[in-house]
Each structure stands twice: as structure tokens, then as C-alpha cells.
Write a sequence for this structure.
């Protein structure tokens, strides 16, 4: 099933728990961060996975490493940062439709921002099926350079790069700064995944087919665009198509749904020629995994196993 190597941010998601008293609020900490979620999802789907990142020498850093280790993720590429640098926290508010709002609490710099190019081991990349990262590590140095290094190592070792843009506008100085940072990585990417709401701020168009054409013209092999409840779009130079989403009833928490989508697609694509039937099935499996990820709280708890995904798709044919 190959090996997925994911680099970038890992955070502790903080959810509101039960009210203890009139003057005490309870909270629940759950591990999160898009690339870490992808690594965990890949392991649950039967792949090997490694995470490359940095956490603080603090309570939440210990907690996150335990969580990743318990899922079978290789954490040898995770560094630790001494105080006052800390592991980032993301307070999560869930709306009635399952959508989320995040409030970040980060030291300056945050632990994940201090991953350096020297921390990215070449042996972790060699032999991988995919290298994965998003745009959040591109906000500040030295983790920006670390992201460029893993992309360049992947190219040197003929390992395809999966760039899940994951644009969070409120974390950037401006949309223009985000575009300038994202742009060079598009030229190093084999697969680019975006949400349909990310096309306009980053590519200057709302038209999915036009956006796909722009990316394919720059050498991207496969473009994936998630459309939330409307399913997903896939395109290569030779073909394109759409797949539907899956109905799971009530959306409890959409945190991690996009990461589940990407992991399921990458695991299915690993080490196989990119024929249309394979790309379509990978996109469909991504939609199924993303739907299942919405059925419980937290980014990782609802990520499906391979058996759960197979059973779900069998019970919910396209």
C-alpha cells in the first residue's frame, strides 16, 4: 500500500466540553493539523505513513506524539522545541451544520514553525509513494524552507508530491502573500488538491475547469477539487470528471474531512499508473472517507479504517 510522508503543522484542537460549574468550563483536547491527519488516515487505510514536523516540549507536544505513535505513524521526523516556544492550540467552535470556526493560540514563533531544512531526513523521503504538505508551513521561515526541501528531495527521488493547499486566509498577511508563497510549490507538485472556495483567492478564477487547466499547464499531473456536499472534480491532461458525495445523515463535525479525502485518494493511487478508472475510483473513495470523517467530533477519531471504508462503499454504491 506504499508510504505517505506528510510534513507540516500539528496542533491540539480544543473543543468545548461539559460545563463543570458556573465558574468552570470543561474542554477536550484532540490531536489535529492537516498533514498529521493525512498520516493517521493513511495508516488506518492500510498504508505506511510518516509525519515530519515539530512540537513543543510541553504537555500538548507529549499528547500529540502519543496519539501519532498509537496510530502507527512514524514520528522519527518530529522535533521538539524548548520553552517558551509551545505547541499550537486551535479552539474549535462547531456550527449547527457541522462547519467549524478556529481560533488559534500560538507562541511566536510556534513550535511547528521552527522545523528547519536540516530536520528533513532524505531517508524518510526515499521510497515513499507520496510526499504531502499544505500551505500553512509556507507562512514563515524556517519551515517554509523545510517544505521546499522535502519537495525538492521528492523530485530527486522520483517521489510524487501531493500539495493540499488548505488555504487559511486569516493566518496570512494578505491573499497576495499567500499566492506568492504557494505559486513556486505548484511547479513542484504532481497532485494538487483544492477546495472550490480556494480557486478564486489563489488562482483568480471560480471556474473549476479553467483552474484545472491552469495547473495542468504548469506540469501538475492530477488536479482534485473538493466541492463539499456536491462531491469532487478530478482532471488530468487526458480526462476529467466528477463524482458525487455520500449521505451520512447528520454532519457532526467536518474537521478532518478534507484530510480523509486526500489520504484515501493517495492510498488508492499509490504506486499505480494513473488511468482514468483509477483516478475516478480514488476520487470517489476520497469523498466516501471525507463523509465518514464528518460523523464524530475531532479530526482523527472518525477517520475510517480500510475495512470501514470498504463496507461503507459497498452499502452505498454510487
Amino acid at each position: 500500500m506504499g508510504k505517505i510522508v506528510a510534513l507540516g503543522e500539528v496542533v491540539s484542537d480544543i473543543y468545548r466540553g461539559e460545563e463543570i460549574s458556573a465558574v468552570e468550563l470543561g474542554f477536550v483536547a484532540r490531536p489535529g493539523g492537516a498533514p498529521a491527519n493525512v498520516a493517521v488516515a493513511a495508516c488506518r487505510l492500510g498504508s505506511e505513513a510518516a509525519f515530519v514536523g515539530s512540537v513543543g516540549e510541553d504537555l500538548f507536544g507529549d499528547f500529540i506524539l502519543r496519539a501519532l505513535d498509537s496510530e502507527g505513524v512514524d514520528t522519527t521526523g518530529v522535533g521538539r522545541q524548548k520553552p517558551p516556544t509551545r505547541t499550537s492550540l486551535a479552539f474549535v467552535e462547531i456550527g449547527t451544520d457541522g462547519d467549524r470556526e478556529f481560533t488559534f493560540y500560538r507562541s511566536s514563533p510556534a513550535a511547528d514553525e521552527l522545523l528547519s531544512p536540516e530536520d528533513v531526513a532524505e531517508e524518510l523521503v526515499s521510497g515513499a509513494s507520496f510526499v504531502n504538505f499544505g500551505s500553512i508551513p509556507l507562512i514563515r521561515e524556517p519551515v517554509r524552507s523545510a517544505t521546499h526541501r522535502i519537495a525538492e528531495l521528492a523530485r530527486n527521488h522520483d517521489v510524487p508530491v501531493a500539495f493540499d493547499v488548505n488555504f487559511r486566509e486569516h493566518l496570512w498577511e494578505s491573499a497576495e502573500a499567500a499566492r506568492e508563497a504557494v505559486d513556486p510549490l505548484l511547479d513542484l507538485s504532481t497532485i494538487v488538491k483544492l477546495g472550490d472556495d480556494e480557486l478564486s483567492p489563489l488562482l483568480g478564477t471560480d471556474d473549476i475547469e479553467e483552474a484545472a487547466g491552469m495547473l495542468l499547464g504548469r506540469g501538475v499531473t492530477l488536479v482534485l477539487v473538493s466541492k463539499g456536499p456536491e462531491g469532487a472534480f478530478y482532471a488530468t491532461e487526458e480526462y476529467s470528471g466528477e463524482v458525487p458525495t455520500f449521505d451520512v445523515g447528520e454532519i457532526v463535525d467536518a474537521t478532518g474531512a478534507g484530510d480523509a479525502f486526500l489520504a484515501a485518494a493517495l492510498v488508492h493511487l499509490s504506486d499505480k499508473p494513473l488511468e482514468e478508472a483509477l483516478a475516478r475510483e480514488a476520487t470517489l473513495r476520497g469523498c466516501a472517507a471525507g463523509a465518514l470523517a464528518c460523523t464524530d467530533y475531532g479530526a482523527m477519531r472518525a477517520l475510517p479504517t480500510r475495512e470501514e471504508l470498504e463496507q461503507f462503499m459497498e452499502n452505498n454504491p454510487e
